[in-house]
Amino acid sequence: MAQQDAVIRLLLVEDRLDDAEQIISHLRNGGMAVRPQRPESEDELVEILGKQSIDIVIAAFEASYLPLATVLERVTATGKDIPVIASVTTLDEKVALAALAAGTRDVAIRGRAEHMQAVVRSEFSALHARRGLRHLEAALRETERRCDALIASSRDPVAYVHEGMHIRANDAYLEMFGFEDFEEIEGLTVLDLIAPQHADNFRQVLKKMSKGEAPPRQLELQAQRTDGSTFDAVMEFTPATYEGESCLQIVFRQQTVDADMVAELDSLRQRDALTGLFNRQHFMTELESAVMRATEGKGKQALLLVEPDHYENLLSEVGLATADDLIKGVAERLKGALDENTLVARMSDHGFAVLCQDHDHNQSQAQADRIREAFKDHILELGERSVNLSVSVGGVQIGERIASVTQVMAKSSQCLASCEGMGGNRTEIFDPAARDRAEEERIQAWVQRIREALAGDQFVLHYQPIISLTGAEEENYDVYLRMKGPAGEVIPPVTYLSIAEEHGLLDDIDRWVISHAIGVIAERAKDGKVTNLFVKITPASLVEGGLETHIAEQLKAHGVAGERLVLQIPESKVFTHLKSLQSFQKAVSKLGCRVALEQFGTGLNSFQMLTHFEPAILKIDRSFITELGKNADVQKQVREIVEKAHEAGKLALAEFVSDAGTMSVLFGMGVDFVEGNFLAAPGPQMNYDFG
Question: Which InterPro entries is this protein grouped with (predicted)?
Answer without folding.
Answer: CheY-like_superfamily, Cyclic-di-GMP_PDE-like, EAL_dom, EAL_sf, GGDEF_dom, Nucleotide_cyclase, PAS, PAS-like_dom_sf
